[in-house]
Amino acid sequence: MRYLYTFLIMFGFWILLSGKFDLFHLTLGVLSSGLVALLSSDILMHDAKKHDRLAIAIRFLCYIPWLLYQIVLSTLHVAYLALHPKMMERIDPTIVTFKTKLKSNIAQVALANSITLTPGTITIRIEDGVFYVHAISRKAAAGLPGEMEDRLARVFERE
Description:
The protein has helices spanning 2-18, 23-44, 50-83, 87-90, 105-117, 138-142, 146-156; strands at 94-99, 121-127, 130-135. It is mainly alpha-helical.
């Protein structure tokens, strides 16, 4: 059932985003959605109880505005660094390593994607719950893992 649900969600997004309803595009959508569902159905449809899925979805939707705000703040910081006359002195790239408290794969993926979505930081690798993140400056690195991890823990791992 996980595979079927994931396939239907992916195919629905395909139709929504492509806006093409001819045989060629629908066939590509079926093939692409099938491949994505095959590779990721266990991530998207983890073993949460059915009533928990709705609660997780609602909590995640509440997380998105906060994430968008963080993206805006990070964008302003990166723009400041890029436009500053002494840019080369302000940019201080570093790699931050931290062990996450998040246990589920979906929560770790959400954290990695959230970090990468905020300008100035990129998740390089996750290995056994240890994150390796490249940050453009010490200020960008200072907030890791921080509040983002705490918020995602409340979204995915609330009991």
